[in-house]
Each structure stands twice: as C-alpha cells, then as structure tokens.
Write a structure and sequence with these properties.
Chains A, B: Keywords: Hydrolase. The structure is a homodimer. The first copy, chain A, is α+β, with helices and mostly antiparallel strands. Chain A has five helices and nine strands. The termini of chain A are far apart. The structure holds a DNA duplex.
DNA sequence: ACAAAAGTGTTCATCCTACACCCATGC
DNA sequence: GCATGGGTGTAGGATGAACACTTTTGT
C-alpha cells in the first residue's frame, strides 16, 4: 500500500540518497566515507546515505543527512544525478539520488553522534573498494567536479575563508590534475576582481608571508548577471 | 507492502520520469509536448512522462517512454537530474527523474499509437503554461543544453545527418541566442576536423549550393581520448 | 648566506574578431 | 544584373604560455 500524508515521517520506498562529501587537505582532495554498522556490507566503507521522508524535499533530505553526519549546515550541496540501474543494489530495487558537497576545513567537525571509527576522510588515492555502485557515483562526481570547477567559482568552498593565492593554485592543480604556472595563474585570478584582499598576511611561515584573500561572492553575483562567466 | 521481484512489471511508487524532447526546425528550437487525456490536468499540455518498472533501469524506462511516443530508438538521451520538491505534484508525493533527448528531423515520425492531437511540437516561444513543475524542468533543461552544447558536440543530434555549415551555424545561433560571424564560425569548425565532407551539394536552392557534411563521431572519440575538447 | 615562496615583467606565438572581398547560381 | 548565400583573405588586437627576474622573511 503506498504511503501518503497519513504517515509524513515515513520514508519513500525504493528511493535513497547518497552523498559525495569532498574536502581538501594537504594539497589532496579527500572524500568522507562511513562504515556500515550492520546489514549485508557490515564493516565496509561506503558513501554516507539515507532515505527521503514523505514530508521533505530531496534536497532537504540530502542536507539533513549531511548535517547529521558533520554537524554543519549551510554547506555547498548540489545534486549530481540519479542512479537507477536495476541491479545497483543487491537486496531490492533502490534508485538513489546522488549529491555532492564541498566543505571547508573549518567545517571539519565530524561526527555529531558518530565515533572516529564510523566516519573517516580518505585521500582519493586511498579509497577502498566501495560497495554497490558507489565507485561509479564517485567517479561521476569527480568528473563532474573537475569540469564544473573550471566554469564556476565553486572551488572556494574547499578552502578556508581566508586563503593565499598559492593555496588556491594548489587546489586547482589537485582538482585538474596538472601543474599551473604561478605568475599566469595569479594574474588571471586577479584580473577577475573576485578576490577581496583581507589586508592580512600569513603568519608562522618560514618564508615571505603571502597576502590573504577572500572570495567576493557579491561581486561575482553582480558580474554574473551582466554576462560574466568564470573560466579556469 | 513494498513490491519486489515477485511483480517485476509493477511500477515503482512515488517515482516517475519526465522527458524533454528537443527538435530543431525553421531555425527554431522545438519541444515535444503531450496532451493529458485524463486525470486532474486533463486537456493540458505537459512533458511526456511515465513510470519506472521494477525490472528496468531508469535510463531504460526513459528510452522506452521515448520510443513509445516517437516510434524511434537510438536517440540521444541523457538524464538531466531528479526533481524532488515535496509539493511538485499535487495529489501525492512523486519525485521525478528528468531526461532530455535531442532528435533529428528524420526521426520526426510522431505518434506510434498517438494522434496529432495527443502529441505536438511547440516552438519554444509558444510553449503554453505547463502543469506541476514542468516549467522548472524545461528551464533547467534549456540552461543545461545551452551550456553543454558549447563544450560537447551534441548539437549535431538536432540536425539531419547531412547538413551545411550555415545550418550548423544557425543551430548554434538559436541555441546560444546570439549571432555568429560566418567566416570565423566556419574556420573554427573546419579546424577541428570533425566534419566529414559528403562530396555532395545542396539541391533545390536558389543560390550557390553549399557542401554537405556529416559529423565524424569516430574521429571525435579518438581525439577525445587524446585530451581534445570541443569548444564552442 | 641560503632556502623558500611572494610577487613582477617581458617576450613571443597563437588565437579571435571584424570586416572586406570574390564566387556560383537561380530568377 | 541582382539577390542570396557560399566561401576566402587579412590586419590588428587580445590572450595566454614560458620563463627570467626581483623581493621578503625565517633559519
């Protein structure tokens, strides 16, 4: 019997959510995985996921799952797409909607209700074999991210609020998988007028301190309306 | 009671599919709509859609719906994304997975099992008010298409197999919403080596006949592997 | 002094744009 | 011959890659 508004908190059958949560540390892209406590794939690391309630939107469900896991809200979160192969899930037919999130190091307050052994950051190179079609989802998410990051200024969501130009460059080098020329990268970014100088410098570095910048979202929104598009 | 393999042909509850089917005629982008024969929105034009069976993948379901409607298979078809707002559908909770298809004029054999009054092409300017969140889906699809067409050679799916450079240019002008310079457009495309000359010319035109070309998918696939990316 | 990274300048090839121009064909 | 679109040429500006160079700061 299909459930309706009579049971608003009940979950929708055959439809789940999975989240790709990306972070950036030590010049490497990381992904957050959870360890299954029970069920068929007990002990296996997998993408964090959950079910959609009848009385919440799909986006809201993804945000809820993310919040439960990290304790943080207002994180960059977008839908990737749905994965609907017949055999993607072994025990019954489940279609999943995949989301991807980009979190700043400041938000790395893991595990509201979780222990360190439940939730862990994995460097992309160290990701274990994932169950179901989670490897496909991860691969699709990475490809999507790699592409999107070049055309929209979303990469800033992976950096602390204040960052140096080198940090930004290294982020892009990691995401795009290629070295970039420092002077050229610097000039290109500066010419966009999207970096707001913090009038501060790095501290505790054993070399000349770099200026800190913030991403200027307001200006970006204004420029976007006028037809400007962020490139590379 | 959740349905399982016991009833493989049964449909999945609370999950539907909607298709944006784009065509190109008279230098205008068209979209295919169907008229609802029954139910709440009887008489209204809406996106063609359907339900997913327990024994078919989501992509397969979209292809099936598309085939039932147009009688054609092997059409360019990709998932846009899922739309999961709580209130997007009035009578009960339904999340939909939206797909978009690009069809060539040759495939305009409408209505296997439909009459002309059931299914119709609408110029984008003449699209009536759509029910549910179908306007949102259309808008999202258009935005996506506009972007994607610049970075991947999918526009060819909207043209006949053999086309002239001007047809191609006019397609892009319609999609991007701007005039393009003929000589430059021509050179840019030719330099990519993705257009295979048919060694044929137009007939029945009251001016100098243009050469016909085909899109060279094989070469494109080869170039892609080597890192080439189609741009504009 | 040296290491390490911050920043600046300059060259050169390449690409893109804008526009002028000639060609072929039907009426 | 003239309208219509097919198709080519070219000058000049903008862009971007490559790399040399100077500056600042901690050890």
């Amino acid at each position: 019997m299909p459930m309706t508004h009579d049971a608003p908190d009940a979950i929708i059958d055959a439809l789940s959510i999975d989240c790709l949560i990306f972070g950036f540390q030590k010049n490497e892209l990381d992904i957050l995985l959870v360890q299954h406590g029970e069920g068929i794939s007990k002990g296996k690391w997998a993408l964090p996921g959950g079910w959609i309630k009848y009385n919440e939107g799909a986006d809201d469900a993804a945000a809820r799952i993310l919040h439960d896991l990290t304790g943080v809200s207002r994180i960059y979160l977008e839908q990737l797409r749905a994965f609907g192969d017949v055999h993607r899930y072994p025990t019954k037919r489940v279609i999943t909607i995949a989301y991807y999130a980009l979190v700043k190091p400041e938000a790395y307050t893991l595990g509201a209700g979780f222990t360190a052994s439940d939730v862990k950051w994995f460097k992309l190179g160290d990701v274990p074999t994932l169950p179901y079609d989670h490897s496909d989802i991860l691969e699709a998410g990475l490809r999507h991210l790699k592409h999107k990051v070049r055309h929209e200024p979303i990469g800033f969501n992976l950096l602390p609020r204040k960052f140096t130009l080198l940090q930004l460059q290294e982020l892009y080098e990691a995401l795009l998988g290629q070295k970039l020329d420092k002077p050229n990268f610097r000039r290109k970014l500066m010419k966009m007028n999207l970096l707001l100088p913090c009038k501060e410098k790095q501290t505790d570095v054993s070399h000349r301190a770099a200026s800190l910048y913030r991403f200027d979202k307001k200006t970006y929104d204004k420029l976007s309306e006028k037809g400007f598009t962020f490139e590379l």
